[in-house]
């Protein structure tokens, strides 16, 4: 048996794919219904073990195909998927819409329950990047529509949530708000501390905790008139100690 080359295999697969697409385009509604019925029947007859094996094989095959696809092929695939999903969602009934959302939520819950810590971090990073890119290129109309859609979705979710879940959600929000206010207060109290206090005597720049008020009850002979006329002086700790002692000379680096 002659072994086919990579080029021959590629051509054969392309011809088979093209032939299948032409067959699907010419397929009648009865033929489509029969094909889907056979697929459903086969899916019901397959055991859980066989189904898991097939899913694993399909996942591996798709991962390999996406790994070697070019940039143009990647963009073309995403465009086709978006058009197909949009068409399917435009034609779905209310019951199908609810069923799809429930199925998607169940699949996402299962996937997130079994993901590892690295997969969790990678997913959050990928979601954050994707959302940031989408919001960066959205126009004003899309932005307004997204905000309105988010508000409507949140209103629907909150109108259906039980009182116990609502109480738990409000409690978490209050705790998060209190923690956020405390963190912000700590941040500002830390970042707003500057070396902006000046000793009236030695003119040294000090932090708020490095200066004190000194009540000038009796004038000091070494103080200039403008300082002797004050009732209170803002002084550093060294000058405060000097003023309290009985020294008759001015501190070093004096005013």
Automatic annotation (TrEMBL):
Highest taxon listed in the record's lineage: Eukaryota
Biased composition (Basic and acidic residues): 15-32, 42-61
Region (Disordered): 1-61
The protein, known as: Uncharacterized protein
């Amino acid at each position: 048996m002659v072994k086919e080359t990579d080029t021959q295999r590629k051509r054969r697969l392309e011809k088979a794919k093209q032939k299948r697409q032409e067959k699907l385009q010419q397929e009648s509604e009865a033929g489509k219904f029969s094909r889907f019925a056979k697929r459903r029947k086969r899916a019901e007859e397959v055991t859980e073990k066989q189904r898991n094996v097939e899913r694993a094989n399909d996942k591996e095959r798709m991962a390999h195909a996406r790994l070697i696809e070019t940039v143009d092929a990647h963009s073309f695939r995403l465009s086709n998927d978006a058009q197909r999903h949009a068409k399917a969602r435009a034609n779905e009934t209310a019951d199908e819409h609810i069923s799809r959302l429930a199925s998607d939520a169940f699949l996402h819950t299962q996937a997130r329950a079994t993901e590892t810590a690295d997969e969790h971090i990678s997913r959050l990073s990928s979601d954050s990047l994707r959302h940031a890119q989408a919001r960066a290129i959205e126009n004003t109309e899309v932005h307004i529509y997204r905000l309105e859609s988010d508000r409507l979705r949140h209103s629907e979710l909150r109108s259906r949530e039980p009182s116990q879940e609502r109480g738990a959600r409000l409690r978490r929000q209050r705790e998060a708000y209190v923690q956020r206010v405390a963190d912000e207060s700590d941040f500002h109290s830390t970042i707003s501390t500057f070396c902006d206090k000046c000793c009236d005597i030695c003119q040294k720049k000090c932090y708020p905790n490095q200066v004190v008020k000194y009540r000038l009850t009796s004038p000091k002979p070494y103080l200039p008139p403008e300082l002797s006329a004050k009732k209170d002086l803002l002084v550093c700790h060294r000058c405060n100690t000097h003023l309290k002692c009985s020294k008759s000379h001015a501190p070093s680096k004096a005013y």
